[in-house]
Amino acid sequence: MKKNIIVGCAWTYANSDIHLGHISAYMAGDILARYHRACGDNVIMVSGTDAHGTPITERAIKEGVTPQEIVDRYHAQFAEAFKGLNFSYDLYTSTATPYHSQKVQELLLQIDKNGFLYPKTETAGFCPKCNKFIYDREVLVTCPKCGTESKGDQCDGCSYVFLASDLLAGKCRICGGATEQKENTNLYLKLSALEPEMKAHFHRNSGKWRDNSINETAKFLDMGLHDRAVTRDLNWGVSVPFPGYENKKIYVWVEAVFGYLTATMKYCEDNGLDYKDYWINNGSNRIYLAHGKDNIVFHTIIFPALLESLKQNYFLPDVNAATEFLSINGQKISKSLGNGYPIADMLAKFPSDSLRYFCVANGPEQKDSNFTFPQLHALHNGEIVNKLGNFVNRTLNFKGLTGIPAGIMSVELESAIKNTYKEVGKSIEQLQLKFSLEQIFTLIDFGNKYYDTKKPWVLFNENKQEFNSVIYSCCVLIANLSNLLEPFMPDTAKKLRDHLGLGAAKWEYVTAEPKENMPKLDALFARLTDKDVL
Fold this sequence. Notes:
By secondary structure, the protein is of the alpha/beta class. It has helices spanning 20-38, 54-63, 67-84, 98-113, 195-205, 211-222, 252-255, 259-270, 276-279, 296-309, 343-349, 352-361, 373-396, 411-429, 433-454, 456-462, 464-484, 490-500; strands spanning 4-9, 12-13, 42-50, 91-94, 117-127, 132-133, 139-142, 149-151, 171-172, 180-189, 228-229, 231-232, 249-250, 285-292, 319-323, 326-328, 331-332, 369-371.
């Protein structure tokens, strides 16, 4: 039975270059989308640029431009980066679109109708010098759990999500001055009333999550869910659709996570589909969310709680593919250090499939990992060039061979291929992507060993019939590698399929049709040298 699959990748703040750390967190989304499409499932992959929130306004103030100008610049950069890396988004949009704003307002009205919103007046941090209320990222606060001084949205040291009461003693990050306490009224979500449903959601689905999502969510639930403000005193964002709140905006983490839903609505409207087939529970749904570990709680609790508060039988996202952190040359990626290696610069120097391969093979899937150019070179030259590239080249470009000969398929190679489909598919759905890629390259190793053992260079002169069967078997392996590699290295996979005359990738065993007078296949990869660095 075909599944209806939503794949959502985290929305990137439009305030700095997109870098390898982002891609390492989002790569799982594209792998899952490509895999499920090959399986024949109905897939919609969405994401976009997070256009609102303090980081954007801070950047705009610093540069002396409007927030929209900042958003437009980075949105174009992000879209180009994802295109260069072959991310297969069905819709990559922005939270700054009128469509998103309208839909979020409608959703908030429904939440209020259901009784999950209420006004709350309390003292809040006010900066007299800046003459405004300040929240979250605008506040510098000491974490009550670990003592780290951090921006007030989430602790950099232990990932603790600050409560409003934690911010009372904070300092203004804009001017550095002490804050005062003034009364202010905001709308709050009754998150505490949704705690039973969120605990049930956790126990029902956490077996599909990685350990970091399980641990962070359990820790958050153990503290008890507290009501959270859904409005902020901002001048950039989605307007609040209630009288009396004209000078406020909807809190970014309410409207940004709703982007997964609104982007699906938009795509379905434009393509004659019904978004409810994907988001309303009908027994065939699956929703994957790919993000970094700093966003776990917003994807495992906050977003599901918002969906639950709509009381329209929404299917709650059931699989969270959260990564750990990627560092660069042993350092935490930092905007101030400028050490993140912008994707545009990386794509100008390296093949997209090599970068994708690195983000899986040496990415932060289960633990923090590190990027260095020697590591990239070692993986590219050692695995991609020496194993995959060499096997393809010496099979398809065998001297004296003019095409794919007719032969008898190797029984052992066919069995290995079919077993790899089964095991890799299972590993992908269990979010074991590094292991999945290892299994594919184990098959490539098996193919290289088969080739060496059979010695086709000897058979070419001594036993042409056996030579034909060996080369044919290797061509069939290459045809299936074009399917198996599709989720991970789509550019390489397409080159192989095009050369062999195959159609779209399928997650099933395929054969290779004998052909004559085929052109030589250009080398798939060039070796990297010590000069290949930024």
